[in-house]
Write a structure and sequence with these properties.
The protein has helices at about 10-25, 50-55, 105-120, 145-155, 190-195, 215-225, 255-260, 270-275, 275-290, 315-334; strands at about 1-5, 25-30, 35-40, 60-65, 85, 90, 95-100, 125, 160-165, 180, 205, 230-235, 265, 295. It is an alpha/beta fold.
Length: about 325
């Protein structure tokens, strides 16, 4: 249930309403927007008298919500959520480029790429220390040593780091990670999501390769229900019958998710296509569709990358994508 309050309401009356609702075992999430104040009621609201609440002097209107996700719902939070990551904001008109290799391979590799992508316009560094791989014989990442190398790249460039967590038991190792990524395979690892809900770090949540948008939002709800509202959604392509690409980028997910939720929505065109030459057109499409950011794999030697080389751009190619994307963003603002 959503309760929209009238402008310039008396704070004491608002507190009385909130306290009364809480006495009914209802959690109340308050959102103070520029033009209105919204109370989001989470819990069993079936026993709340909607007519009684509507009749209160401070209440403008009351709406029951049919969607199962509440905290992530835009109806609860009309204004875009803006997440600040070490001074770099994402959401609410703030756009970010997150770039780096699929996996950390060496100090020279990660620090060199970090410097290159920063010079090209990226403000955040991505890199895998723990790598989920289909084959048990494939490179699984440098694990804890990889995290230390990401920290060294951050020290040299000042870029916040984004990297994927695989298991709850690894959480202590992520103390110096700025954004914890939940990969597509773990999107419905609910025990992991609940634990991340108790952290204060931004969580980049990728859509599962066979999951609906509602399922993605429900996974975000798991994190937010634990108290962590710093969630960034990522569309990274879904599994279809098409075989020419690794996955199929669901570009429609960007505007639809922006309608349904207040959370930032970014796009990973690298995993969507799995083909480097398709990254630029898919990136430009994502920007035009209204994405809040791009997450792109960049490697200084894709042909010899230990993981996902065919979908990685070189630093000069990434710089060209940023240039084209900025031109589209500028045109959209005119």
């Amino acid at each position: 249930m959503v309760v929209v309050l009238k402008k310039n309401t008396d704070e004491a009356q608002v507190e009385n309403l909130v306290n009364w609702l809480k006495s009914l075992n209802i959690d109340v999430h308050r959102s103070n927007g520029e033009y209105e104040t919204v109370l989001g009621l989470v819990g069993d609201t079936s026993h709340v008298d909607i007519d009684l609440v509507s009749s209160l002097d401070i209440v403008d209107n009351v709406t029951r919500i049919s969607e199962p996700y509440k905290s992530a719902n835009r109806k609860f939070h009309p204004d875009d959520t803006v997440i600040d990551i070490n001074g770099y904001k994402i959401g609410g008109g703030n756009f970010q480029y997150i770039a780096g290799p699929c996996s950390v391979e060496s100090e020279e590799q990660i620090c060199s790429i970090a410097s290159d992508v920063k010079a090209a316009g990226a403000n955040m560094l991505r890199g895998g220390a723990f790598k989920p791989r289909t084959s048990p014989y494939a490179f699984q990442g440098m694990r804890g040593d990889g995290l230390k190398l990401l920290e060294e790249a951050k020290k040299q460039t000042g870029m916040p780091i984004v990297t994927e967590i695989m298991d709850i038991s690894h959480l202590d190792l992520f103390e110096n990670v700025d954004v914890i990524q939940v990969g597509a395979r773990n999107m419905q690892n609910f025990e992991l999501l609940k634990e991340l809900g108790h952290t204060d770090k931004p969580i980049l949540l990728k859509r599962g390769l066979a999951n609906t948008m509602q399922e993605l939002l429900m996974s975000a709800e798991y994190i937010m229900a634990g108290g962590n509202e710093k969630v960034i959604l990522c569309e990274r392509g879904i599994r279809t019958f098409e075989t020419y690409t690794r996955n199929t980028l669901d570009i429609s997910a960007v505007p639809l998710l922006k309608e349904k939720t207040h959370l930032p929505v970014i796009v990973d065109p690298s995993h969507a296509a799995g083909i480097a030459r398709l990254v630029r057109p898919l990136s430009l499409a994502a920007v035009a569709a209204g994405a809040d950011g791009l997450m792109i794999e960049v490697h200084n030697d894709p042909a010899h990358a230990l993981c996902d080389g065919p979908q990685a751009l070189t630093p000069p190619q990434f710089a060209e994508v940023v240039k084209k994307a900025e031109a589209i963003r500028s045109a959209m603002c005119d």
